[in-house]
Amino acid sequence: MTGSVIRIVLPPHLRTLAQVRDEVKLEVEGRVTQRSVLDALEARYPMLRGTIRDQVTQQRRPFLRFFACEEDLSHEPPDAPLPPSVASGAEPLIVLGAIAGG
Going edge to edge, which strands form the sheet with 64-68? Predict the structure, then answer.
């Protein structure tokens, strides 16, 4: 089985850390889920380990959100399949820095 090519859009500070200019394209083997995409991202860009999710608990960092197909996927289970258009590479998975304030 060949992997899926997934497109990921990172916020500017993480693009700088990973030393990439534009979106990242990664091959993901098996089911395309938040966990499998983030595993592939951290394997290719080890400097991102611990920046998007906690290294111990694997929980998403509080001020980061995941979006795809104009939907907030931040509270979806990590092993839930991502939308088919993300799995096919037609749409990117967007990692967005949330803004807090009051």
Answer: 24-28, 4-9, 93-97, 64-68, 71-72
- Which pLDDT belongs to residue 58? 77
User: What pLDDT score does 102 carry?
Assistant: 59
- Model pLDDT for residues 4-35, shown as the tens digit of each residue: 899 999 999 999 999 999 999 999 999 999 99
* CA dist., res. 34 & res. 25, Å (int): 15
Domains of the chain, start order: 4-97 (3.10.20.30)
Write down the H helix ranges in 2-79: 12-18, 34-44
